[in-house]
Every structure is written in structure tokens, then in C-alpha cells.
Amino acid sequence: MYLTREEEKALAGEYGYAVQKSMELLVALGDVNGADRLISVTSVQVSGVSYKTIGDAGVEFLMEFSGSGAGVRVLTTLNPAGVPLSGELPVPEHFLRMQGRILSAYRRMGAVLSCTCTPYYACNLPRYAQHIAWAESSSVAYANSVIGARTNRESSISALAAAITGKTPLYGLHLDENRQPTHVIEVLTELRGELDYTCLGYHAGRLGGVPFFQAKAVPAPEELKALGAALATGSVSMFHFSGATPGRASVEGLEKIQVGRGELEDARETLTTCDSPEVVAVGCPHASLGEVLRVVELSPAREVWVFTSMQVKQLVERHLRLPENIKLIPDTCMVVAPLEEMGIKSIGVTSAKAAYYCMHLSRMQVRLDSLEALLSCED
Ligand code: F3S
User: Fold this and answer.
1) Is 254 in contact with 180 (CB distance < 8 Å)?
2) CA-CA to 371 of 20 to 30 Å: which in 6, 136, 277, 291?
């Protein structure tokens, strides 16, 4: 791979240990993927922030790495942590201590402790066609498909290396040719709300590639957010939706796959194992202001947890006094918080991504359903 003189110096260790190790990793990644050079990125979104997902080995690595003088060179925001920074969830003491070390390490490196998977609602909104290096799968799908920025689905380590150097290898979704649709998904049923979009995304995610959705609906940005997050439970990091996503897409000669109500129902059934969840939790990906207001409008009788970013929480609380049963929980989510260690065994969610990981990672009973149905179900 071609490297500039500055990049050669970084690789040779002239800018310190952390830059050298990061450059080694990016060059190796570029070589494996056939990149011919590195490009600059304007922002990074780092995953691997919750103690639940990175464990003791991850904490040790971050403490050592940040202690070696590592510092970010571009705007770097974080994925949700395992606890709200203001402590609204009663998580075990050990978890809290280890989570604190992770956040201190990122703070020492200069990352913004925004702790959200919707950085585009907070302080990290890229522009169309900008190259970025983001790691969290739903934010990657949103950035590529809805904003039109360009990012591969980075690992937590490659995103951190991009943050330290401000560079990423030029391959994959940074290139025009890989951003074109690979197949068309013709949606034969009317799409009605977040549940339909998340079920569609879960079904289409199993097919991989870069799908082009043809449907009568013109989805709202939140519905595209739900679609992208569910697609990302498969291997999809970018999609097109007719009339709703930016950029030119050619569908000539592509295979057409039809999806109807039956496929959406199948997805919901696959991700449902209980009727009466103990906890109802929405906000996967983190709720927008509009989504929080929708929960308030429905005036639920039961308790509901709404995961969101600190920025959205503060905005809501500046203007509204929420009823006690609507809990806005920032900085974490139903998947990366240790809910199972808090004794919670079943959960109702509106997102296929949350359902999938609560079922497979946290081993909980799950009900995937619409917001209205969950808020009126028995606990
Ligand atoms: Fe975000 Fe957690 Fe869902 S990180 S996309 S709310 S699983």
C-alpha cells in the first residue's frame, strides 16, 4: 500500500507507540482488503465501550493503551456504555468500577463521552460523502444510507486506530462501486410504523449485500433508523430505499426478491418468546426527540424505559415534566447494560436488533412488538 512520508514516519514510530501500533493495524487491514492507500476521516465512532462487551481483557488493553500517551486526532464519540453516567440503573458494584476505568481511558485519549449509538442526534453529524470510521453497526447503516457519508463497519480496534491516526484504508464502502445495490427487495405489503421496518430489516439482513428497497411508503428518518439497525443484525452496512435515501443507485438487471406480510410476521415470531415481559424498553437505536414524545403521547399505564442520548434527555427535560413511569435512561441500552445481572429475565422491545441480542447475548425471554401493544400488555 502506498504511504505518504508522514505515514511512513508514523509507521516507523516517530510519533510514539500508540500511533505506530495504530498505523501497523491500519496498514495490515488495508493490505488484507486490497486498499492502495489510506484516506483521512473526519470523525470516528468507537464501539467496545461497555464492560459487558469487552470484559477484563478490554479494560486492561484500554488502560495500557491510554497510558502510553495515545490521543485522538479527530472528533471521536463513544457507543453506549454499560451504565448511565449519572447512575440511574442499579448495576453491580464491580461492573460500575470497571465501567469507570473504561470511560477514564477514553477520556484520557480525548474522546467525547457522548455514549450513544445515535451520535448524529448529538455532537457527531457527518456530511454527505464525508469519509468517517464508525464501528457501531446501526450508526454505520444510518451514516451510509440516510446521511450518505462513507464508512466501513469498523471493529472497536480499527475504529480506535482511526481515531489515533485520523486515517482509514480506502476500501469497501468508501468506494463508489461497492455502494451500488446488489439486489432489489420489492415490498408487497404496506409498511406501517417501526415494527414493520424492523421486521423487514431483520428479514433482509439475512440476505446480505446492499439491498435496494422498493416500496410504496416514504419512510420517516426514524423508520430508516429502525430498518438499518435490524439489517445490521445480518451483514448489511448500507441500503437504498426508493425515494428516501440519497445518492444515485442503478437497479438495472438486478435480482428482485419479493417480501410480503408473511415474512414480516415470521421475523416477529422468531424474535418473540414471551407474552408478558417484566420490563418494556424502547430506544434501540437510541430514541430521537420525536420517539420520546411519541411515548409520552401514548400516556402508558405501565413503566417504560426509554434509552436515549444525554443530549435528547436534556432537551426533553428542559421542556417537559415526565410522568414517573416514563424513565429516560441515557448513555446505555437494554443490550449493553447488564440487565440479566440485575435479575431481569424478560423484556419487551420494539426493535429486532434489541430482541436478537437480548435473546442471544443476554439470554432473556423477549417480546418484539409495536410500541402500542407493549405499553398495553400485562407485566
Ligand atoms: Fe444502540 Fe444498543 Fe441498539 S447500542 S443500536 S441501543 S443494541
Assistant:
1) no
2) 136
Angle ∠(178,173,218) on CA atoms, nearest 5: 85
Half-sphere exposure of 205 (CA within 13 A, CB side): 25
Return the DSSP state at 278: S
Q: Which amino acid is at 81?
A: A
3-class state of residue 265 by DSSP: helix
pLDDT in tens, 112-158: 999 999 999 989 999 999 999 999 999 999 999 999 999 999 999 99
**Strand, coil or helix: 54:** helix
Ligand 1 pocket by C-beta < 6 Å: which residues?
79-80, 117, 136, 138, 229, 284-286, 307, 333, 335-336, 353-354, 357
Is residue 143 within 8 A of residue 179, CB to CB? The reply is no
What is the spatial order of strands in the sheet that 304-308 belongs to? 326-330, 304-308, 279-287, 346-349, 365-368
Specify the higher pLDDT residue, 91 or 302: 302
**Strand-pair partners of 167:** 40
CA of 284 to the centre of ligand 1 (A): 5
Confidence of residue 294 (pLDDT cuts 50, 70, 90): very high
Residue of the nearest CA to atom 6 in ligand 1? 284
Distance 307 CA to ligand 1 centre (A): 9
Give the model confidence (pLDDT) of 22-44 as tens digits. 999 999 999 999 999 999 999 99
Q: Which residue has the cell 470523525?
A: 43
Domains in the chain (CATH in brackets) are 5-176 (3.30.499.10), 180-264 (no CATH), 271-376 (3.40.50)
Residue of 286, 356, 358, 361 with the most ligand 1 atoms within 8 Å of its CB, for mutation? 286
pLDDT score of 89: 80
Q: Which of 49, 114, 121, 138 to mutate to test the pocket of ligand 1 (most atoms within 8 A of CB)?
A: 138
Average pLDDT over residues 298-309: 96
